[in-house]
């Protein structure tokens, strides 16, 4: 096999997620709760990508339509919009880091809108008359 035929190292999505979580923990001082949530959300997303688009995906091949489809899938009922918004926030943050660190040229997540969240009136405590 010639040197030109050798495949270049392409980190897997899960490897990139692990790198990002280390950055969050070590450089940004993220809490254990935040790290668990981002780990859950980002690995859920990478599992979805692997299942629907192949396990050998790279961040460059993920399109905004893939992110929208994942978000829509997790938002089947109105009460699921908050978890979907949290997942999208984690995905956006990861893609922003991928772009800033030079691992990605275009941030596809920036094209995905946050789902509208229901607005609730504030709860007023009962009067103590």
Describe the structure concisely.
This protein has 129 residues and is mostly helical.
Features:
129 residues; globular; mainly alpha
Describe this structure in words.
- With 129 residues, the chain is an all-alpha fold.
- 51% of the residues lie in helices and 0% in strands.
- It is built from four helices and no strands.
- Helix 1 packs antiparallel against helix 2 (32-53) and helix 2 (32-53) crosses helix 4.
- The chain starts with 12 loop residues before the first helix and ends in a 29-residue tail after the last helix.
- Residues 1-9 have low confidence and may be disordered.
Helical amount: 40-55%
Main pleated sheet = none
Query: Would you list the SSEs in sequence order as H and E?
Result: HHHH
Summed over residues and divided by their number, the pLDDT gives a mean of 83
| Alpha-beta content class | mainly alpha
Count of individual helical segments: 4
Percent strand: under 5%
Distance between the termini: 87 Å
* Shape label: globular
The quaternary organization reads as: single chain
Low-confidence parts, pLDDT < 50 over ≥5 residues? 1-9
Q: Give the total of beta strands.
A: 0
Radius of gyration: 18 Å
């Amino acid at each position: 096999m010639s040197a030109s035929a050798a495949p270049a190292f392409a980190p897997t999505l899960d490897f990139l997620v692990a790198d990002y979580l280390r950055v969050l923990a070590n450089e940004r001082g993220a809490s254990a709760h935040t790290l668990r949530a981002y780990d859950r959300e980002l690995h859920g997303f990478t599992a979805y990508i692997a299942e629907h688009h192949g396990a050998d995906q790279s961040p460059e091949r993920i399109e905004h339509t893939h992110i929208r489809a994942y978000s829509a899938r997790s938002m089947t009922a109105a009460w699921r919009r908050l978890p979907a918004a949290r997942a999208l926030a984690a995905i956006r943050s990861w893609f922003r880091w991928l772009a800033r660190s030079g691992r990605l040229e275009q941030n596809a997540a920036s094209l995905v809108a946050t789902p509208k969240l229901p607005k609730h009136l504030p709860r007023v405590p009962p009067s103590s008359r």
